[in-house]
Amino acid sequence: MPKTFPVDTSDSATINPSQSLDKLGIVSSKVERQIDELQKLKGQLEKTFLPPELKLKAERMLESLGRMQGSVGYNAEYNSVERYLDWICNLPWDKRSEDQLDLDKARDILDSTHYGLEDIKERILEHLAILKLQKEAAKNQETMDLGKEIEKQGQMRAATLFFVGLPGIGKTSIAYTIAKSLNRQFIRIAMGGMGDALQLRGQSQMHLDAEPGLIIKGLRRAGTKNPVILLDEIDRTAESARAQIMGVLLELLDPEQNFAYMDHFIDYPFDLSEVLFIASANNTAGIANAVLDRMEEIMMPGYADDEKIAIAKSYLLPRQLKLAGLSPDVISFEEEVWPSITRPLGFDAGIRTMERTINGIVRKAAKKLVLGQGQKFVISLQNIKEYLPKW
Q1: pLDDT in tens, 140-151
Q2: What is the pTM of this model?
C-alpha cells in the first residue's frame, strides 16, 4: 500500500497568486525607474558639447550601464557613471569669456585698485595689446596668412606671471585686478600646506572617493576655458609632496604641455592653453628650477612710508568707511597724523598692519557716533591715542 503524507494547509504554505503579482509589479517598477534614469543621462549627454572621443567614451559607458539593468551591481555602477557624466557635461569645453581689450579702460581699472606697481601694469597692458592685434589680424582679409598662423597656434600663450614678495604687499589682490581688467573669471588655488599632488591632478575613478583635482573644479566654477588662475603661495607646499606637486605645476605652466592637461578623474585631455596663469610666493626657495624657468618673475618690493600714506588716503580709508556704513565725511585726518600711524608696530613691508590700524580708528569713531558723542570726527595728533587700537 503506497505511503501517504499529510498536506500542510496552513497560511504559510498556501500559494497566494497576488503575492507573486506584487513581486512582479515591484520588479517591473524598478526596471521602469532604471530605464527613466538611463534616458535622463542620455538626454544630458545629447544636449552637451563634448569632444568626439570623449562623447563616444560616455556613450559606451551608458551602453554598458544599460546591459546591467536589473542586476545587483546596477546602482553602484549608475552612481559612478552619473557622477562622471555630471562632471564632463559641466566643464567649459567650448565656452570662453570675451576679453576686454580697451587698454585705457584696463589701465583705469588697474589704477583704481592699486597704487604704483607700474611695471606690472605695463606688463598686463602689453598682453592686452598683443591679444587685440591678434584678433584684428585674424579678421583682416589682407593678412589671411597671418590669421591662419594665429588660428593654428591658438591664443597667445603668455608666460606665467610670478609675483615674489613679502606678505601683505598685494600679490593676491593684483591677480584679481588683472582678471577684472581682462574681463575674465578669477580662480584662486591655495597651495600653502598642500600635501598631495592628487589635490591638483585628481584621483582615478577606480577609487570609491575619487574626484577631480582643483584645476578642473575651478574651471567648472568659472564656466569658461580662459579664466585667470592664481596658484597662490607655491613655495609653501608640504615638503613631503613637493617633488610631485612641482611635476604637476611643470605641466600646467608649460605651453608645450598644458594644451592637453590630463586630470586623473576626467581621464581625457583638457586644453588649458587659453588660461592666464599667475603664481605667487614669498621667496623662490623650494621651487624647482624647471618650474621657475617657465615663469616670468616679477619682484614686488615693500612699500615706503610715503607710498603707504598715499594708499591709506586713496584706498584703505574709503574702503573701511564703506564697510562700516559711514559716509566719507564722518572721519577726517589732519595731514601730520598720517606719519604717526604708518608704522605703529615697527616696519611692515605690506599694508596689512596699517589697514588694521585704520580699521580700529573707524570702529572707535563708529561707536562714538552710535552713542551720540559726535557727528564728525577729526583725527589729530592731540587725540590720536584715543582712537588707536590697543593690541
Answers
A1: 655 555 544 444
A2: 0.77
